[in-house]
Structure formats: C-alpha cells, structure tokens
Design goal:
Elements lengths: L1 E4 L2 E4 L2 E2 H8 L3 E5 H14 L4 E5 L6 H8 L4 E4 L2 H10 L6 E3 L6 H10 L2 E4 L2 H13 L4 E8 L21 E2 L3 H9 L4 E7 L10 H20 L5 E3 L16 H16 L7 E4 L3 H4 L3 E12 L3 E5 L8 H5 L5 E3 L9 E6 L8 E8 L7 E4 L20 E6 L2 E6 L4 H5 L10
Parallel strand pairs: 4-20, 5-6, 5-13, 6-7, 7-8, 8-9, 9-10, 9-11, 11-12, 12-13, 15-17
Antiparallel strand pairs: 1-2, 2-3, 4-14, 14-15, 14-19, 16-19, 17-18, 20-21
Helix pairs in contact: 2-9, 3-4, 5-6, 7-8, 8-9
Length: 419
C-alpha cells in the first residue's frame, strides 16, 4: 500500500510526487486499502465484539464513512464529534458518548440523538436523568470506571490510573450504579473503562477486563443486567519498526478471558472495544517540502509542516519514521534533524535521522500520521491547515481542501469602535 517505484514513494498506485505537484505541500495522504486492511484485521480478530471507532483519532468524514460502512460503531467525546460521526454515517444506537466534562447542551444533544452514554461523574448522571425525563426517554448508560491500572505508556496518555481525571474512582463504582438504579430515566446496561493509548503490552488490558468482571458480578447481584463490557481503545501501533501487537494478538489474549469470565455472570454481555490509533494510524503519511537545509549545530532540514500540523513529536516526544519521498532508493549518508516553520525552538518533527543527502525542494515523508495527526492541528503562526487526500488504487480524491488565508480570519470581527 505504501511502496517505492523508481525511487519514489507510492501510495497504492499513486506517486507521491504527482500528488505534491498537483496539490502542493504539506499534504496528508491516506491509503484506503491500508484502512480496509486494518478494519478487516479487527473484524476477523473479534467476530463477536462490537467495535466502536474512536473518532478522536481522525475525524475526516471520508475516513469515518469507510469505517461506518463496515457497521462499526463510534466512540465520540464531544457534541462536535457526535455531529461529525452522524454525518459520516454511524448509527446512533452504535454510538457511545464519552467524556469527563460534558456540557448540558451536549447531554441534550446525545439524548435527542438516542446514543448511549459513558457517564464520568455523578453530576453527569443526574443531568442525564433530568434531560431524559424532560424528553420522556430512558437513556442507556455505562459508567466509565477508573480501574487504577498502569498501562505502561507515556504518562500524558495513561488514563486509567487513580491519579487520572477520568472515570469513577474504583472504590465508589458500586455506589454510582446504585444511584443510577434509583433513577427512572436512566438504565445502566454496561461497564466502560479506557486505560490509555499506545499500549504495547496486552497484560494491562487483561488486568482491566478482570477487574470489570469482578465489578460485573457485584452489579448483577444489585440487579443490573450487563449488556456490554467495554475495555476501551489503546492498542499500540508500530511507529519504530520494533513491532507492536496486532488485533489478532490482542484478541488471542483477551477473548478467552472474556469468554471464561462470562460464565461467572447470568447475563450475556458483549465485548466492546474502542480502537482509534490501531485502525487509522498507519494508513496515512504527511508529505512536506524542504525549504532549506542548514548546517548549524545540527544538520537542520527545514520543512513546510511543523507542530501546527503534527504535534505528537513535540507533545509526547513521539517517534515517527521519516524518509525522503523522492529519494527512496538512495543511500542514507547523513544525519539530519527535521524542523518545521513554527517560531518555536521546540518545533522539531524528527531528530537525528540518517537520510540520503537532502536538498531544498526534496519532499520528506512522515509515516504513521493517520491518528492524532490532522485532528490535533492548528493555525498557529498564521498557517492555514493543509489538504487531506484519500488514495484508492489508481485514483485519489481531495477529502479536505487546504485552508486559505480567508480561513485565518473566518469568524473574526473587528468591532465598530475600532474602525
Ligand atoms: N476510548 C477513549 C475513551 C479514549 O479516550 C481514547 C483515546 C480511545 C478510545 C482511543 O484510543 P486509541 O485506540 O487511539 O489509543 N493524542 C494522543 C492520544 C490520546 C488518546 C486519547 N484517548 C496521541 O497522539 O498519542
């Protein structure tokens, strides 16, 4: 799906050089075939699970439509994500509305749409009750519980430790469900957790799952019928070439535990998963043009994309493989540091990488940028966001146009008293 012909990077059958000549840089390019492959990997690894795509990873409508067409559900984390997920084609009954700080209007929107809620606080529970009552509805919920598990990942993306802002503290989960059972317009039907992201070992997931089953047993005794147990997302992808577990590896370890522990229950819950990164991460590359090569303290390669378009290296010290898209077969002879155009010293995309001789005009490809790439972009330093392209075999389609200067001032108003 990503290959090389005559020394040039190809995305399926389309040359990266043709794309940048026609559409300019920077440019996010997604391979549909790679995305379909990832979707099929989940479908075949988890034939009996409900898979909810975490749309926060990449909310491009075309990408979400491909995933929705496979019958996947969606994990949304805001009213805006819910809006986009609905337009992309996700069915409300397969949408779980997550979030630790939902505004009242978001709860109203979710109730109106008929989605399920993952409830993160008692305040939220009572708000849902109020809204549901007003609309004469019964809303199905799970609590997001905080199982206090170390996922062994970057601290900024560990979400199930007891120090985290997410979820109902483990000791108070029974109390939360008890409160929910007393409410006429709220029906607890599931348990939810999400322990973190880019998790390379499966054991923390197994640990979490076991804890959720321990809880489920107690909940059944209280009269809760458990329709689903949602272990969230978080499966790592292979950014570095050192390997990462596949959905199959994941399934091999958690499905037997799930089936085994299900025997402890009288209800027949379904396993729910919320993958984001492992569906979209490796489907996409960011192509960025070299504006200058500077021999200074380091060999700096200054490109036209910075942390305005890919913030992961800066925020998490994340590693993304890079190459020279127009020199894929040339010998790697020098060490370069790839920096963006943003007016901050921290705007470094890749540090000390061995590459072929880089010159002005070359195109650097940054791999595995499909998850938490464009979605985390900004217009900082007056830089309109770039276009996104979807490649499908021989054809390609611009699935998001590049912004223009007009977008930089869109929605701004100079007050009359300044005129
Ligand atoms: N479910 C919930 C409730 C989540 O909060 C997340 C991600 C997911 C599912 C999907 O996790 P995934 O399968 O993608 O790991 N911006 C960071 C990642 C933040 C993840 C936030 N939550 C990064 O670029 O690494």
């Amino acid at each position: 799906m990503f290959g090389v012909k005559d020394g040039v990077l190809y995305i399926e059958n389309v040359s990266s050089m043709e794309l940048v000549e026609r559409l300019g840089t920077p440019l996010y390019v997604t391979s549909r075939a790679k995305l379909e492959e990832n979707i099929r990997a989940y479908e075949s690894a988890f034939p009996n699970a409900e898979i909810l795509y975490a749309v926060k990873a990449n909310n491009n409508l075309a990408i979400m439509r491909i995933i929705a067409n496979h019958g996947f559900g969606a994990d949304v984390f805001s009213g805006g994500e819910l809006y986009m997920a609905r337009i992309a084609g996700f069915k409300p009954e397969k949408i779980l509305f997550n979030g630790n700080s939902k505004s009242d209007w978001e709860i109203e929107m979710g109730v109106e749409c008929g989605v399920k809620f993952s409830v993160d606080s008692i305040d939220e529970l009572y708000t849902i009750q109020k809204v549901a009552e007003k609309r004469g509805k019964v809303v199905e919920i799970a609590f997001r519980v905080n199982p206090d598990i170390n996922p062994k990942t970057h601290p900024k993306i560990a979400t199930g430790l007891k120090t985290s802002k997410f979820g109902i503290p483990w000791e108070t989960t029974l109390d939360a469900y008890e409160k929910a059972l007393e409410l006429p317009n709220v029906k607890p039907v599931g348990i939810h957790c999400h322990i973190g992201s880019q998790i390379k070992e499966i054991s923390p997931f197994v640990e979490a799952l076991n804890k959720l089953f321990d809880l489920a047993i107690k909940l059944e005794e209280m009269g809760v019928e458990i329709d689903f147990i949602d272990v969230g997302g978080g499966l790592a992808i292979d950014y570095t070439g050192e390997g990462a577990p596949t959905p199959k590896d994941f399934a091999n370890e958690i499905v037997p535990v799930f089936e085994d522990r299900k025997r402890d229950l009288s209800s027949d819950p379904k396993l729910w998963l919320e993958p984001g990164r492992s569906l979209v991460g490796n489907t996409t590359v960011l192509l960025t043009r070299v504006n200058a090569v500077k021999r200074a303290y380091k060999n700096f390669v200054a490109v036209d994309a910075g942390f305005n378009l890919l913030i992961r290296p800066v925020l998490y010290n994340a590693y993304h493989r890079v190459a020279v898209a127009n020199k894929m077969n040339e010998r790697e002879e020098e060490v370069y540091t790839i920096v963006g155009p943003i007016c901050e010293s921290g705007d470094v995309l890749a540090e000390d990488r061995r590459l072929p001789k880089v010159e002005k005009g070359d195109v650097i490809v940054i791999f595995d940028t499909g998850a938490y790439g464009f979605v985390m972009s900004s217009q900082y330093n007056g830089r309109p966001r770039c276009a996104e392209v979807l490649v499908d075999g021989d054809r390609y389609h611009v699935v998001r146009e590049a912004e223009t200067f007009g977008d930089l001032i869109y929605k701004q108003r100079i007050p009359n008293f300044l005129l």
